[in-house]
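=== Structure Prediction Worksheet ===
Name of assembly: unnamed complex
Input type: mixed (protein and possibly other molecules)
Chain count: two
Listed entries:
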Amino acid sequence: MGLTKHSTGSALAGTEPGIRRGPSDRLVALAGNPNVGKSSVFNALTGMNQHTGNWPGKTVAVAHGRCRTDRAEYTLVDLPGSYSLIARSPEEALTRDFICFDSPDAVIVVCDATCLERGLNLALQTMETSPRVLLCVNLMDEARRKRIAVDLDTLSEKLGVPVVGTSARDKRGLSALTEALDALTESPVPAKHCRPRYCGEIERAIAAVEPVVRELSPTGLDSRWLSLRLLDGDEALISGLKSRCGIELLKDTGLKSALNSARAQLEREGISPAGLSDRIVSATVGAAEDICSGVITYESSGYSGFDRRADRIITGRHTAYPLMLLLLAFIFWLTISGADYPTQLLSDVLFRIQDALSLLFRRAGAPEWLHGLLVMGVYRVLAWVISVMLPPMALFFPLFTILEDLGYLPRVAYNLDRPFKRCCACGKQALTM
Amino acid sequence: MERYCTLDRLPPGMSARVIGIETDGDMRRRFMDMGLIRGTAVECVGRSPGGDPSAYLIRGAVIAIRSEDTKSIQVTAETGGE
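=== Predicted Assembly ===
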């Protein structure tokens, strides 16, 4: 939640709809679960060369930026974090719409090396829709620290897509990532990659619907995947298709009857609509599990001894609240007392400038009211505000960011959820206060 | 020995395997996104100082879930942890 240049700076004032993109740029989407360091990969690749723009018709802000390699230029789009392409929130819908309808030249799926299985779920879903996918296994340093070994070669072999390990915060592995991106976007024939197989009944239903869907679907959209989504009755996708591509699939009577008969057949075979959704999800989750076995080796358990012991204290029944109060008190104390000296320094400097300004005005023979208005009024107020407000803010926000990086803030939310729920709120809102 | 219960009754330190999720709509989808499906191993790693929510280790990630939501997840407790 730290303040970044593009969340506060001039970029915010200049938000523009859509993305700015050079004519020969290759369009690349960055997708991934929340908190896997997707934005650090994005920042490391694009440097300062980025903009934030609201998506047409949506209120979700999306950052995009340009990145240049020896062989090509890319426009990178930092999609909101999501767990699934079967969208539930507006952010996830945006991610899905972009991957499906904007036909990017490649999609980089960013995963957390310490929690690969969960990220693979999204990667597998993306691979169902996009021909060119690159898996970026980020936080490799964190994984090493937690003694989790990830076999990237085997992973790449099993998935059938290029896999690159990175530690984006330390800017490690990024050249390998851009090289893989060059190679991927230049490969003429999309690589054959692994797709989850569903049970026989569902595969037969897909096979029955797919030929009809292929006739109707816009180019670039995978017909097998679209058939599956239609069978599953994904309303959001259907309305997305209508608004983005102007295609109303369900107006087609041929497709409608094909879908109805396929669904009726599934029902006869004992798969209800809810059962179908479950089986689809289970197939992807199961595939992710299969792929991970043999790729990941834990030298200790996934949630390691140190974290476990620390959490026992940080979220312990008797220690959690006192520790939290102490820590917050310490941060406030540090902010207030630490700000004293720079405040003094700033006010000294700024008021010395005020004296110089007064002198300047008097020498120039400016009327007293002008001097009063500009120097004693505008300048003096500004000087006070800056010298009093700037130092504590410059201290408080970095301290808060450190707490965030240490992972303390989610634990505060966890500790405070019960009391906050009594007030009909949730623990997350504690952080706003 | 196997015991059947709902996930909210699983005491900290114990592991279990999911046998079913008895809820529909968004919460069900969220559970699925976490990879919480039939057969998934879950360990309760702690309770928040207020007694709710509890933290669970699911597929390598620690996730806090309120008991009103874990009530709908049925598990078989595995004795002696993993």
